[in-house]
Amino acid sequence: MSAPDFIVHDAKDTVGVIVKEGIEARTKLSGWIMEGDRRLELECIDAIPLGHKIALAEIAEGDTILKYGHDIGKAVARIAKGAHVHTQNVKTKRW
Q1: Which residues pair with 29 in a beta bridge?
Q2: Within the chain, which residues score under 70 in pLDDT?
Q3: pLDDT (tens digit per residue) in 67-81
């Protein structure tokens, strides 16, 4: 089994974390869901840098983003499945 392109810690997470360099748009990725030790395939629609997040499913504006089983903010725009999830479409709920 090859090393995953992204990792999901908690089965309830809405994003995965890219763990390989050079992920290009329109690439089929392999992910590992640590909870339950399962694999997931997903096509990324954007180039996504190492350490950044990928949407595991469609995320609506206003939805909570879950990473590592924790609320990390809310979507400030619709995020398509396979899209880059970062500061352009997620903001903290603190302000």
Answers
A1: 42
A2: 1
A3: 999 999 999 999 999
**Do the Cβ atoms of 26 and 44 come closer than 8 Å?**
yes
Instruction: Look up tokens 């997040």; give the residue.
Output: 53
What distance lies between CA 23 and its chain's CA centroid?
13
On whether the CB atoms of residues 32 and 8 are closer than 8 A, the answer is: yes
Write the burial class of residue 30 (CB in 10 Å: 0-12 exposed, 13-18 middle, 19+ buried). middle
CA distances from 91 to 2, 21, 35 (A): 33, 25, 26
**CA dihedral sign of residues 27, 45, 32, 18:** positive
**How high is the pLDDT of residue 48?**
97
The position carrying tokens 């983003």 is 65
